[in-house]
Amino acid sequence: SFRENYEYAETLGVISIVGLSFSLLGLVVTIIHHLRENFQKKPRKQQTKLNSKVSLLCIYLSLLAFIITFLSGVQNSSPQNSTMEEPSNQNHIPASDRHVEPDRGSCTAVAALLHFFLLATFSWNSVYGTQLVLLVRSMHRSLPPYWTPLSLGVGWGVPAVVMAITLAATYRVENPLGYRQEEL
């Protein structure tokens, strides 16, 4: 529905910030615990266990980076100032929807980082799940020697390529809203 003075519910913003802050705190504690327990100088364990721990750490780090990027960059520091037209009985596109604010770069950068970190989180979860399936199904309970470089390429590389291709295909300086959305 179209309303001239639409504003988000303030309580929704507070709940989001509080919830993401708890998630941020939980991820930091989890990463610290994971590093202390798994990467202390202990006798060298199997490479498979190290691969599993690296995959989990990458999941945690991509989620942490996403939340930090979201909390620091989600606020639109320079919203568009436009005059809204009065709704009439005819269907038409308001002038504010046709107005394109020039790109200052920061909003597009935040959108690209959020896109990358969400894809990376999904990719690392897929890598970790595939790793578990391979370990359960294999008789030797070990991963192939090329698994670490492959998992790093899939976990970080594929999201970077997808984000870059999407950004290149949809972003234009004269029309930045092809890649991101500007909330009025």
UniProtKB/TrEMBL annotation:
<dbReference type="InterPro" id="IPR000832">
    <property type="entry name" value="GPCR_2_secretin-like"/>
</dbReference>
<dbReference type="InterPro" id="IPR053066">
    <property type="entry name" value="ADGR_G7"/>
</dbReference>
<feature type="transmembrane region" description="Helical">
    <location>
        <begin position="147"/>
        <end position="171"/>
    </location>
</feature>
<feature type="transmembrane region" description="Helical">
    <location>
        <begin position="112"/>
        <end position="135"/>
    </location>
</feature>
<keyword id="KW-1133">Transmembrane helix</keyword>
<dbReference type="Pfam" id="PF00002">
    <property type="entry name" value="7tm_2"/>
</dbReference>
<keyword id="KW-0472">Membrane</keyword>
<feature type="compositionally biased region" description="Polar residues">
    <location>
        <begin position="79"/>
        <end position="93"/>
    </location>
</feature>
<feature type="transmembrane region" description="Helical">
    <location>
        <begin position="12"/>
        <end position="33"/>
    </location>
</feature>
<dbReference type="InterPro" id="IPR017981">
    <property type="entry name" value="GPCR_2-like_7TM"/>
</dbReference>
<protein>
    <recommendedName>
        <fullName>G-protein coupled receptors family 2 profile 2 domain-containing protein</fullName>
    </recommendedName>
</protein>
<feature type="domain" description="G-protein coupled receptors family 2 profile 2">
    <location>
        <begin position="12"/>
        <end position="184"/>
    </location>
</feature>
<keyword id="KW-0812">Transmembrane</keyword>
<feature type="region of interest" description="Disordered">
    <location>
        <begin position="79"/>
        <end position="100"/>
    </location>
</feature>
<feature type="transmembrane region" description="Helical">
    <location>
        <begin position="54"/>
        <end position="74"/>
    </location>
</feature>
